[in-house]
Amino acid sequence: MTHQLSVRVYYEDTDLAGIVYYANYLKFIERGRSEWLRALGIDQVALKQDSGHVFAVRRLEADYLRPARFDDLLMVETALSQVTAARIVVDQTVRRGDAVLFAARVTLACLDGAGRAVRLPAALAAILSHRPDIAEK
Q1: Which residue among 15, 43, 50, 112 is the active-site one?
Q2: Contact call for residues 28 and 14 (beta carbons, < 8 A)
Q3: Could you give the C-alpha distances from 9 to 36, 62, 76, 105, in angstroms and in order?
Q4: What is the DSSP code string of the chain?
Q5: pLDDT by position in tens, the chain (length 137)
């Protein structure tokens, strides 16, 4: 499953030249991951309240390919690449039409309430492992 989230570039997202400030792509893909999890039926607020589990970015590989500009309508695409006992790896792109502007591979670690790495909760692992697009590694 590839999830898509539409994002409009606002003035606040840009620098003086009207180009999206590089760090704002990270905000765009964070929103994409949150909405991807929501679409899978994963309630992150309930997960934290019930078990103390949260996700933290452990690793990020990013390529800035082309600039986005003020008022562009962008599409943030999120797709599961890999799932392990304690990590989720997603591939994300930000597109304007057919043009890929930004691409990232993001590794998320599952943490407990004390900030220690832990296994994914069983229910979450089951949801992710039954996705046909997972490349188990």
Answers
A1: 15
A2: no
A3: 20, 19, 12, 22
A4: -EEEEEEEPPGGGB-TTSBBPTTHHHHHHHHHHHHHHHHTT--HHHHHHHH--EEEEEEEEEEE-S--BTT-EEEEEEEEEEE-SSEEEEEEEEEETTEEEEEEEEEEEEE-TTS-B-PPPHHHHHHHHT-TT----
A5: 799 999 999 999 999 999 999 999 999 999 999 999 999 999 999 999 998 899 999 999 999 999 999 999 999 999 999 999 999 999 999 999 999 999 999 999 999 989 999 999 888 888 888 744 443 33
Please name every residue paired with 93 in a beta bridge, in sequence order, or none if there are none.
77, 103
Please enumerate in sequence order all residues whose Cβ is within 8 A of that of 122, keeping only pairs 6 or more positions apart, or say none. none
For the whole prediction, is pTM greater than 0.85?
yes
Q: How far apart are CA 36 and CA 76, in angstroms?
A: 10
**Contact criterion met (CB below 8 Å) for 47 and 37:** no
13 is catalytic: no
- β-pairing verdict for 73-83 and 87-96: antiparallel
